[in-house]
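Memo subject: From amino acid sequence to discrete backbone structure tokens
Keywords: amino acid chain, backbone geometry, structure tokens, three-dimensional fold.
Body of memo: The sequence and its backbone structure tokens, given next.
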Amino acid sequence: MTAPDEVRLAVPAMPEFLRLVRVTAAGLGSRLGFSFDQVEDLRLAIDEMCFGLTGASGRVGTVHVRFLVGGDVLEVAAEGFFEDSLETPPESEWSKVILAALVDDHELASGPNGPRFRLVKRRIPEHPDGPEAAT
């Protein structure tokens, strides 16, 4: 078994830069053969998790992201390094419901340097005869 490929990204913790995290995740999901819907789910999950780290207006500091790509799985782990606080904002119940529908596993927690998140998305093979045949 080969080790997963790893991609690292560090961006300012502002919404306009966090888009780079979403674009990178989408590109890697496409590389794994995720369907269009699976890539969109991943993009939405990344948005939700980044919002959980930084809030809507961003924070002073950076977000360090690590993408692990292997087999049919994309794992994304990120940690905020912020000047203002090490506290992790509470994850809303609505956010938990959204993320449970979009990805296979996720968590938002406190890390040694600030808030962090982790999510896992697995590729679901499409039915060879199309989506109608699977029902």
About this structure: DSSP finds three helices and five strands in the chain. The chain has one domain: 5-125.
